[in-house]
Design brief:
Helix content: 10-25%
Strand order of the largest sheet: 1-10-4-7
Distance between the termini: 48 Å
Structural class: mainly beta
Order of helices and strands: HEEEEEEEEEE
Largest sheet: 4 strands, antiparallel
Number of helices: 1
Length: 164
Amino acid sequence: MKTSSALLFYLIFSFLFISCDSKRVFDTYKSIPNAWHKDSIVSFKIKPPDSTQTYNLFVNLRNTNDYKFNNLFLIVEMVFPHGKTLKDTLEYKMADPNGALLGTGASGIKENKLWYKEEVVFSEAGEYTVNIQHAMRENGKVNGVIALEGITDIGFRIERPSEK
């Protein structure tokens, strides 16, 4: 009897937690073991549910206090089902002027939800691929940071836009 009560509580809690995020269409993370190598590409395969709706796209990441930069440069590439590719180099602010890391989270891990694209229509039927790679460099150096420390997870999120 005790096990079934716990299971029922878990199912109700899970349902309530999931239903609170009604804008979510796709939301997946991939872990970065140790440090994020400059040649390592994190890929997400996406099959959008509706080709007539608009969606907002985000890069999500989790970082620790080992992240030592004030910003983050990413190369984000979207490969369409029929071969077209869009590639963007994006910069995000990761710390305030005092050096305190931005993001949510009370522990040593901060979570950041970073805008990628707004009001996107997935007009082609089929599977899309999103590739994310870091493009960090230290000031005054030509070569990129080989092993970017402090990033623990990279995610990609698709949301329905807020009602206007």
